[in-house]
Amino acid sequence: MKKLKVGLLGGTGFVGQRLVTLLENHPYFEIAVIAASENSVGKTYFDAVNKRWKLDVPMPGSVKNIVIKNINEVDAISSEVDFVFCAVNMPANEIRAIEESYAKAETPVVSNNSAHRSTPDVPMVIPEINSDHFKLIEAQKRRLGTKRGFIAVKPNCSIQSYVPAISALLEYKPTKILVCTYQAISGSGKIFSDWPEILDNVIPYIGGEEEKSEQEPLKIWGHIENDKVVNAQQPIISTQCIRVPVADGHLAAVFVSFENKPSKETILEKWATYKGKPQDLKLPNAPEKFLTYFEENDRPQTRLDRDIEKGMGISLGRLREDKIFDYKFVCLSHNTLRGAAGGAVLSAELLMNEGYLTSK
């Protein structure tokens, strides 16, 4: 198979570093270009990132000598790649502009950023859950006036643990969800040496996170009508998002009520058998088992279980009835793998499999 040539926009940041490691020896994709802000332009990837390498695995040798380009050189970069991953750290209006510029240059964009998540004809997809939303791409291309250029995004990392769990139960019509997420510091692009203030501390605020956590699931559960996603009206979601002193992994405590309350045995069966196209197609980054339930009272634990299925699986536990809601449970996802870079790569794998990403 001829590999598609990939550009990484924002390749020097935390998510960009994760993308670099995930794309090393990938069977479908190879990194052709790494682009970043002007501060890094002209340096090799090694020189630009070495002292800021945040992962506990070595920097792949294949990228060390790649010379970083300016992300604003849209035409030049587009001439060298088949599509780009976008993980830039810029104001939202600038991200929207740069992503549309690449799409209009006939270079598809698979984005980790939030800037286009509310754009009605931009699919925001968790591949196992709402891959049918990729159908929006044809309408989006008509709006942009492109033949192959488009934008697809992945949702916020904070929702990736509880949205899969609820998605498996949508037939029972959840009406109310209360979620409190306990989020790792890597979600802010930091490691402990960057942020000593977080040690022995909990911060009960993450800017913009609660709004995203309450709104984005409704787009994922929405339907396509007149070439756009119409958000679901239910369930009503209320969240609190809290930063805790762990390196990786977002834990969520979830409370849920249903219009048609299922039994506990039914819920466990639905979770055990829930899967999507990535599993059917055996995509390279697809977890073999999407949802894993732990019977132990003290699981899932962030340090023990965040790496399940190479960080692409969701861990669940402590399902029990509640005095106010119907049920409560705990779930966990790896925020920089399933929640960020890994989710984007899995989306790209599915987009390629369905013919949206092709060689130029």
TrEMBL record:
Domain Semialdehyde dehydrogenase NAD-binding: 5-137
InterPro entries: ASADH-related, Asp_semi-ald_DH_pep-lack, Semialdehyde_DH_NAD-bd, Semialdhyde_DH_dimer_dom
Top enzyme class: oxidoreductase
Record keyword NADP present: yes
Alphabetical keyword list: NADP, Oxidoreductase
Molecular function as annotated in GO: aspartate-semialdehyde dehydrogenase activity
CDD domains given in the database record: ASADH_C_arch_fung_like (cd18130), ScASADH_like_N (cd02315)
EC number: 1.2.1.11
Name this polypeptide is given: Aspartate-semialdehyde dehydrogenase
Record organism: Clostridium frigoris
